[in-house]
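Can't paste images in this forum, so I'm doing it all in text. The chain is below; anyone willing to post the predicted structure tokens underneath?
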Amino acid sequence: MNETETTDPIDDTRDASLPSADGIRYAQCWEDADVLVEGLDVQPGDTCLSIASAGDNALALLTRDPERVVAIDMSPAQLACLALRVAAYRKLEHHELLELIGSRPSDRRAALYGRCRSALDETPRRFWDAHPELVERGIGTVGQFEQYFRIFRRWVLPWIQSDERIRRLLEGGDPDERRRFYDETWAHWRWRLVFRVFFSRFVMSRLGREPDFFEHVEGRVADRLLGRARYAFTELDPSDNPYLQWILTGRHRTARPLALRREHFETIRARLDRLTWVHASLEDYLERQDANTIDRFNLSDVFEYVSEPRYHAMLEQLVRVGRPGGRLAYWNLFVPRSRPESMADRLVPRPERADELHAQDRAFFYGDFVLEDVAT
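Text version of the structure:
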């Protein structure tokens, strides 16, 4: 690659001011990391490019022994989330990391952060120093998206489901038991009505996501989400679903995302020096890269928010930068995006593998998972 990268995520000479805490849209990654790493099939020695978000999935890629992972994000606040996670892996033990994130209750997060400070560069350190209230709440709880779920959990869910029903749902059981419980006990008229209201485009654009995220969305989003929720509650096991557990309880009870599991902690810690991060948009970053330099791309759901012509232009750049045989992985939430026929000779879809993994996707709200290979 032909640029200097930095592990200081807020070092931007165009704007030296600290980002606002409101800039944290996602304090966690809400794409299933198990689906991601299986779909990308990272090989030892690969170079990976990952949308940073809060950093969890960029860290998860390290478990597959790549030579290098580059995390990029347009938001300095998001990159500050990644920087603190990296510092926590360096300075804390596994159970302490879970406390700092908010996966476990804790009354000592300020002290845990104090142990991480020396591993932070100046500007992310100043960011977190300026927001001790975010640390106290748990750094995985403080994004706009997580606050949306907190409102649902605190003010809406108690009105439609009892604690006993929530406990029973999260116990799981065999598929027949899960379907019977959902259809006969959980999915009553109040659940359906309130779900359609709270997860409507109108409410989400005011509480959970920026309104411009829905610019290219057509149709009733709540009905699509309700169908995906039934799938997650019945066909997948809630007792093994960290994303559902967080939505309903605000904790990781019996399951955790890949990067937060004990068995991966030391591996990630040992490979942190392979991770760098850059403050840039995907388009700007790709324009500065040499051809045939990146093997694997975690693109999150970035194409959801751009027009179809702009999406096609981004694919052209990704194919140029990707090595032959490289792979792209991305999610569609409400807007369908997939390789145009005009690129059939350069980008090869892998729908069978993608569909197989999407059926296992515990971050259940995504409508589609896409895998595409750079042609050899």
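The radius of gyration is 20 Å. The first helix runs from residue 33 to 40.
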